[in-house]
Amino acid sequence: MTLTASATPLVVAHRGASADAPENTLAAFKLAWEQGADAIEADFRLSRDGQLVCIHDASTSEISTQIRNVHETDWAILREIDVGSWKDKRFAEERMPTLTEVLETVPSDKLAVIELKEDPNLVAPFLTELAESKFPINQLLVISFEPAIIKDIERQQPDIQTSLLISFRVTHNSVTPNIRSVMLLAKQVNADAVSLSAKGPLTPHNIQLLKDEGLDVHVWTVDQPPLAQYLATAGVDSITTNVPGVIAAALGTQP
Question: How far is it, in rounded angstroms, from Cα 223 to Cα 242?
Fold first, then answer.
């Protein structure tokens, strides 16, 4: 399976099934598979001692009462933090997983979308741990908002599929950046795809412009079935969502 293997957009579970389980935990990723997701999306940062840690924010303040800045804290300490109770007390045993632990949840016919946060120093430990995990490259997409990260991945290991994350600023009379600027930036860093905020100008015409340049088009974060169905008709390759079961049902892709 690849992110462009189906005529119907693949459903990517945003930080796992994060509407129902604590984000970026093994519980959320395992639940995503149960809900029919085609892929999981997971975020990674570096601890002070260089361990890749699965967490979205720079600190634990949004997911735990034990507040630590990730890059200032050693992995042994981060590993002991309860990152599940904030969602529900039944998740009290959840801890931040490693890259290897996240990849171990991925079935052989499913995909992993790995977001490397803004630190370019993530690339070297990521490639090292990825190699050690022996995770199949054809089941992987690496995404980042940081162009330098995408460019470095493409330079060091061009067989890994990459996608440049793009957010949009919307005002009453304009949306920036425009699609041609997105296209240019993606080509400059040799990205294979773009991952666009659902707030962008996602018309069928604009999506086709990107595809005509050889770029796959992924969209985040979509929790409303009508929007997901519109995007499917518009031709996107995947839809990232907090409610993978709901969106899979709306697209008719649940097993």
Answer: 6
